[in-house]
Design brief:
Length: 405
């Protein structure tokens, strides 16, 4: 079976997605997600201009060889644009292979290691009251694990909180020609967050798993202080407490706190984990299928992590399309050292374009039994939602210095 064509569709059913459609000479169609939030068109061009012409005529079954051909063959290795492009090709080829076998993808990855996939949801609010309503809504949806983000007094809208007045659902990429600018003050954040955890714990009890994402904003010693101050409320994890480029920072954090740590959504290769995993500096690997070279790339990372006691916690924000999420769910089903799956929840129009075979109920996912990934892409529906320029926010300290968002 040969690859006949590879086409890219960029659409925006509420938010931007880049989808690769690979068609074979036997009429099978596989799809892959190449969405890179805020830089979507760079990956679309990489695929259309440089990858699609190389795929035509290749053996559709040669998934590993195609991965290596695009990785080693480019000479310029790694990087988010390259690895998102490779991911899309890899996922589309796995989709084709599993359809050809007449099996859901997880069967080709080793079959079921569990009956269901536990997920965590997102709760957020400008203050503790609004946050509590949001936590309650997630509990009513069946979640037993919830990420809590809250506005910091005096800081205005910030990470995890909508900057659109009255909006409850948090969507970070704002449509427009420039990013929204937010304000960050670590001092007020560090003073406020322990009280938030204390309040949410006392309102919702000990059973609910609470997660929190720091989005790379603290210095190593600030992160250590945060971990220590939250220990009494036993968080499930703290995510991205320091910048991801300096992995030694987590040594400092580890020396001072036993709070579990998660990192990896901005990484794109197993090479990014060469220090973090062997030194056992993290407990959860947060890489995405879409941003780390697809099923092939992520499986390699997760098996490496498993040696060092790190569990999978695949990135699942709304900027991963349902195609990327479906691929994660197949890995979650088969991978032995599974931790938890993030589920930020796509909304209405997304499902006009993507018809999904996976299902979520009572806090857990099922990957579905359709052959392949189980997601169908409707090109006509996609054409009704054209691309819109959108950017993630940028972040500044009170004195105007640009900071990590
Ligand atoms: C998370 C995140 C995301 C990112 C987003 C960037 O889900 O843990 O940190 O919401 O901000 O994916 O594109
Ligand atoms: Mg995160």
């Amino acid at each position: 079976m040969r690859i006949q064509s590879a086409e890219v569709v960029v659409c925006s059913p509420g938010r931007n997605f880049v989808t690769l459609i690979v068609t074979t000479d036997e009429g099978l169609v596989g799809i892959g997600d190449a969405t890179l939030n805020g830089r979507e068109l760079a990956v679309a061009s990489y695929l259309t201009d440089h990858v699609a012409p190389l795929l035509e005529g290749r053996d559709a079954a040669a998934v590993e060889d195609t991965w290596q051909y695009l990785y080693r063959g480019a000479y310029w290795r790694r990087g988010p644009v390259t690895m998102a492009a490779i991911a899309a090709v890899d996922v589309a080829l796995w989709d084709i292979k599993a359809q050809a076998a007449g099996m859901p993808l997880y069967q080709l990855l080793g079959g079921r290691s569990r009956d269901s996939i536990r997920a965590y949801g997102h709760a957020h609010g400008r203050d503790i009251e609004e946050l509590s309503d949001s936590v309650q809504a997630r509990i009513e949806q069946g979640f037993g694990a919830v990420r809590i983000q809250v506005g910091i007094p005096g800081n205005g809208p910030g990470y995890g909180i909508s900057s659109v007045e009255g909006a409850h659902d948090y969507e970070p990429a704002s449509v427009g020609l420039r990013p929204v600018e937010e304000v960050w003050d670590a001092g007020s954040y560090l003073r406020h967050i322990p009280a938030v955890f204390e309040e949410v714990r006392s309102r919702f009890g000990a059973e609910l798993d609470l997660l929190h994402d720091v989005h790379h904003r603290l210095s190593p010693i600030e992160a250590a202080r945060l971990g220590r101050s939250l220990e009494p409320f036993h968080p499930f994890w703290l995510e991205d407490v320091t910048v991801a480029e300096n992995q030694r920072a987590l040594r400092t954090v580890r020396e001072h706190t036993v709070v579990p740590l998660a990192m990896g959504e901005t990484y794109n290769s197993i090479v990014d984990y060469l220090q973090l995993l062997p030194e056992q500096l993290i407990d959860y690997v947060r890489s995405a299928v879409t941003h780390s070279g697809g099923v092939t790339g992520l499986k390699r990372i997760l098996e490496f992590g498993a040696i060092y006691g790190a569990k999978s916690a695949t990135h699942g924000p709304t900027d991963i399309s349902p195609v990327g999420l479906a691929a994660a769910l197949h890995i979650d089903t088969a991978h032995h050292d599974f931790g938890i799956q993030e589920y930020m929840q796509h909304t209405g129009p997304v499902f006009d374009v993507f018809d999904v075979g996976y299902a979520f109920a009572d806090g857990v996912f099922q990957p579905g039994e359709r052959p392949g990934l189980g997601v169908r892409f409707d090109r006509e529906a996609a054409a009704r939602y054209p691309y819109r320029q959108a950017y993630l926010p940028v972040n500044r300290l009170r004195d105007g210095t640009l900071h990590d968002w």
